[in-house]
Amino acid sequence: MVRTWSTEQGRDETCEKCGSVYEVHITRFPGRDADKFNCDVCGHLMREWNDTESPSFRLKTRGTPPGASPPKARSARPRP
Questions:
Q1: Sequence-separated (6 or more) residues with CB below 8 Å from residue 7
Q2: What tens-digit pLDDT sequence spans the chain (80 residues)?
Q3: Do the Cβ atoms of 45 and 70 come closer than 8 Å?
Q4: Where are the domains of the chain?
Q5: Is 65 exposed, middle or buried (0-12, 13-18, 19+ CB in 10 A)?
Q6: Measured torsion, CA atoms of residues 6, 12, 17, 20, in degrees rounded to the nearest 10
Q7: Cα three-residue angle 31-60-48, rounded to 5 degrees
Q8: Contact, 51 vs 65, CB < 8 A?
Q9: Distance in angstroms (rounded) separating the CA atoms of residues 1 and 27
Q10: Residue 51 CA to chain centroid, in angstroms?
Q11: What residues contact 14, with CB distance under 8 A and at least 6 apart?
Q12: Is the distance from CB of 46 to CB of 59 less than 8 angstroms?
């Protein structure tokens, strides 16, 4: 088991390509961690790191991938 120094909630981050919003938590380890995170919706590289601080991402709000049309609003139909 890897020992951690601390975990804290970071600020939300938004994908600049599709607008998806992620909740970020930062974990501090005694050793370095190198990795990257790509947006789950559009695949855009959001962050790379090689540090003792390692972020984890949780999708809060799904954005619209480039080239996809946004969801259409549903209109209420009157009932007969």
A1: 25, 26, 27, 28
A2: 556 577 788 899 999 999 999 999 999 988 898 999 999 999 999 999 999 999 999 999 999 888 776 656 555 566 56
A3: no
A4: 6-61
A5: middle
A6: 110
A7: 35
A8: no
A9: 14
A10: 19
A11: 20, 21, 22, 63
A12: no
Report which residue type is found at 65.
Answer: P
Q: Are 20 and 40 in contact (CB under 8 A)?
A: yes
Burial of 68 (0-12, 13-18, 19+ CB in 10 A): exposed
Residue type, 58: R
Cα–Cα distances in Å, from 71 out to 43, 57, 75? 20, 24, 12
CB 46 within 8 A of CB 65: no
